[in-house]
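Quick one, tokens below. Sequence please?
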């Protein structure tokens, strides 16, 4: 039974290493969970284990090396967690035939690239991003086997488990229409309703605790912009793609004025984080790592250029989360499930809602801004060249940020009573479009730009 949305803001906005939440953060969390289950085995069973086997299926197999899925899973087996991951150490795992020593109580099991199976093509699992982990004895007999699904934004599910009852929140809704009815019924400001739900969903002691954690998320986002603006060079991988954020920002300062300067800066801010993500550095899923540049780019502009208060930015982030919750609950934020419309499209809608809120728009206009942004990303494929989150992913963050700003502007001068399409309808269209999209265009690097570009 659909009990409505009870997701915590901090499940949607997660700190972790790039370049892909579903391919990096998800596998790391899954492997860390498998490690905990290994440690829970009876000593006599664990003693018989000699090898850990990891198998990737679907999109994880098609683009896993380029997305760093193998390194991320190895880090999880070593006990790393995304939020505290040493990205420098992560980058070197399994490189050049290196072996990871997985310490399990008094046992140490060697794990290397030779223990990873890449099962490309069709499979029978219900989710595209699937991984299977096994502990094998000397004869190859499984002593423990678990299957995990990485379902977008760093969220994972373990096969065969019954989902726990969601947290009980004071205000239950399933979509935007339901949320608006709650606002009218209880006479609450939207951000107050969201805050009450967050305290319950996240188990927070107080609103101050929520605000402190939101500040950490914002600070991490802004720090990623700063690092990206100050870093030049070539991104990892076979494409040889040069970073551009610093150059774009420099051009904005040197030769642009008025609206051109604003657009160039916004592009640079979003590019900066997208390049940090592509380099495997720490970013915040918003709602995914592949779309991690949009909201930080917008926030950086609002705080550093517009001097908006941190309190207002926290509220804007809560309203952005509302849009992400609804899209994830009723469709998907996974490129492997619905294409890049679920990543860049949803991120642009979230950023548009944030912009509309901080500029004083009403809830109907906030909805309109999100609807416009998502509507004009419908059908966007996920076709990364060579499986790396670089082309076209990085520029899409910049273009999506500009689209979010334009969506807010269009909504701000419109009459919501004359609107013909609701946000809920666009989310439904995104799900339908994703289901009808060719599988090769959903994060496999076997279609679209990944197939036609000379870079590949």
């Amino acid at each position: 039974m659909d009990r409505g949305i009870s997701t915590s803001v901090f499940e949607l906005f997660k700190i972790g290493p790039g370049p892909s939440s579903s391919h990096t953060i998800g596998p790391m969390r899954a492997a860390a969970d498998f490690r905990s289950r290994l440690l829970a085995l009876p000593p006599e069973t664990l003693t018989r284990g000699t090898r850990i086997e990891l198998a990737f299926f679907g999109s994880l197999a098609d683009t896993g090396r380029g997305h760093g899925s193998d390194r991320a899973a190895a880090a999880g087996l070593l006990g790393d967690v995304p939020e505290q991951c040493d990205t420098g150490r992560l980058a070197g795992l399994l490189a050049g035939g290196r072996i990871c020593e997985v310490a399990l109580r008094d046992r140490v099991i060697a794990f290397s690239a030779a223990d990873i199976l890449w099962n490309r093509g069709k499979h029978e699992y219900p989710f595209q991003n699937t991984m299977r982990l096994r502990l094998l004895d000397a004869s190859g007999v499984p002593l423990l086997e678990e299957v995990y699904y990485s379902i977008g934004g760093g969220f994972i599910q373990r096969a065969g488990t019954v989902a726990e009852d969601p947290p009980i929140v004071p205000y239950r809704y399933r979509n935007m229409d339901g949320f608006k009815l709650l606002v009218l019924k209880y006479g609450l400001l939207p951000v107050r309703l969201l805050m009450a739900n967050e305290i319950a969903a996240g188990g927070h002691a107080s609103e101050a605790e929520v605000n402190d954690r939101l500040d950490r998320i914002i600070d991490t986002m802004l720090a990623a912009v700063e690092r990206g603006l100050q870093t030049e060079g070539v991104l990892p991988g076979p494409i040889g793609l040069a970073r551009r954020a610093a150059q774009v920002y420099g051009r904005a300062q040197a030769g642009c004025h008025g609206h051109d300067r604003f657009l160039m800066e916004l592009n640079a801010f979003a590019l900066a984080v997208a390049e940090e993500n592509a380099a495997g550095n720490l970013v915040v899923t918003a709602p995914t790592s592949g779309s991690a540049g949009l909201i930080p780019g917008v926030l950086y502009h609002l705080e550093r250029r517009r001097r908006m208060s941190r309190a207002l930015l926290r509220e804007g982030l809560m309203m952005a989360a509302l849009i992400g919750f609804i899209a994830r609950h009723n469709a998907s934020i996974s490129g492997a499930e619905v294409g890049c419309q679920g990543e860049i499209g949803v991120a642009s809608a979230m950023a548009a809602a944030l912009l509309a809120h901080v500029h004083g728009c009403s809830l109907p206009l906030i909805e309109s801004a999100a609807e416009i942004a998502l509507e004009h990303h419908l059908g966007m494929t996920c076709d990364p060249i060579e499986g790396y989150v670089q082309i076209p992913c990085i520029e899409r963050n910049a273009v999506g940020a500009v689209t979010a700003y334009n969506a807010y502007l269009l909504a701000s001068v419109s009459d919501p009573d004359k609107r013909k399409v609701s946000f809920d309808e666009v989310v439904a269209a995104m799900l339908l479009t994703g289901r009808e999209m060719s599988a090769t265009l959903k994060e496999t690097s076997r279609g679209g730009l990944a197939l036609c570009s000379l870079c590949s």
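The CA atoms of residues 133 and 429 lie 35 Å apart. Strands lie at 15-17, 51-57, 100-104, 107-111, 116-119, 130-136, 142-152, 155-158, 282-284.
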